[in-house]
Structure formats: C-alpha cells, structure tokens
Amino acid sequence: MRHDTHHEQHSHHERGEQHGQHTDRSQHVDHSGHADHTSHADRRLGKAGWATAAQATLHCLTGCAIGEILGMVIGTALGWGNMETMVLAIVLAFFFGYTLTLHSIRKAGVDFRSALRVALAADTLSIAVMELIDNGVIALWPGAMDATLSDTLFWGALVLSLAVAFVVTTPVNKWMIGRGKGHAVVHQYHH
Which tens digits make up the pLDDT trace of 103-161? Predict the structure, then answer.
C-alpha cells in the first residue's frame, strides 16, 4: 500500500535513521493530515485494542456457536450420551471456526493450502479456550448436561456458556494480536 510505504519511510526519519546518502527530508510527504495514520500502523504492527480483540473473538465465537449448537442438537436429538454429544459439539465448533476464517482468507485470493495454515494458526488457541470455558460452564451448571432441546435450561445454559467464553477469550485474543499472532495474521488479508 503506497500509504504504508511512505509511513515506513517517514517513521525511519522520525527515529533519526537515514536512507543511504539521502539526507534531504524536504522531499518526504507530510502524513499528518491522515486521520487514521496511527491506526494503520498499529494494525500493521499487530497492536490490538479491545475493540479489535472483541471483533476477532466474535468472529471465532460465531463459528464455535454454530458447531456447538449443531453438535448438541444432533447429539441430544439422537439420544447420545453427554460425552459423545460434547465431543461432537467440540469437533464441529473447531470445524466451523476454521471454516469461517478459511472462507474469509480464500476470498482475498489466497490458495487453499496457505489459507488453511493461516486459519489453523489464527484460530486454534482461541477456539480451544472458548471450548474449554463453554463446555466447562455447561458441565458445572446443575442439570444442564441432562437438559433436552425442549428445556429452557438447555438453551439458557448454552447462551450463558457462550457469553462467558466470549468474555474470557477476548483478552486471550488481545494478547495474541498484540504479539502479531492469532487474528493479526488473518487481518493482513482483509486489506
């Protein structure tokens, strides 16, 4: 991006660095008029605010929720035991979490194999934390594991467990993005 190239040149000069023999700074473009100048640099460097982390977590939560709900509905409807239903829900949560990320990266024109590597690197920790918290809440909620699809407890426990998972996973994603990992890797394909 032309703006980013000029920004990198400009930031080298702010730190007192020079490009080879070039010492005349009058030829550089003044970028002070760009209102979003800092946020471009922050995103490129992997710095994350809470809004960015929450957005990444919400993206991850969407895939997890689809998988969780589908797995629990299938397992409960088929009369499976708690363990089989939970395993199916977790497998489907990872599947749909990765699939949503993979889809967005592929839309940017990245080949399937590279996109899959990015999706695995970006989402694995986030989905794992989300699943641990989500399933932990359901397992600890009295009667939630034995609730059926027609029980309010089934849906209430599921919604609350996903909300708690979102709250716990957001700081994890903020930490990862701040280190240039997780959804920071995915973000570069959205620009």
Answer: 888 888 889 998 898 889 888 999 999 999 999 999 999 998 888 888 999 899 999 99
> Which of 62-65's residues contact partners 24+ apart within 8 Å by CB, and which partners?
62/100, 63/93, 63/96, 63/97, 63/98, 63/99, 63/100, 63/101, 63/123, 63/127, 64/93, 64/96, 64/97, 64/127, 64/130, 64/131, 64/134, 64/162, 64/165, 65/93, 65/162
Which tokens go with 52?
């960015």
Strand partners, 19: 22
Q: What is the pLDDT of residue 70?
A: 94
Predicted pLDDT of residue 23: 46
| Cα–Cα distance measured from residue 23 to residue 43, given in angstroms and rounded to the nearest whole number | 29
Beta bridge partners of 22: 19
- Per-residue pLDDT for 91 more than 70? yes
Residue 28 to residue 190: CA distance in whole angstroms: 28
- Round to whole Å and give the CA distance between 76 and 146: 9
Report how far residue 54's alpha carbon sits from residue 128's, in angstroms, rounded to the nearest whole number.
Answer: 16
Residue 73 confidence (pLDDT): 87
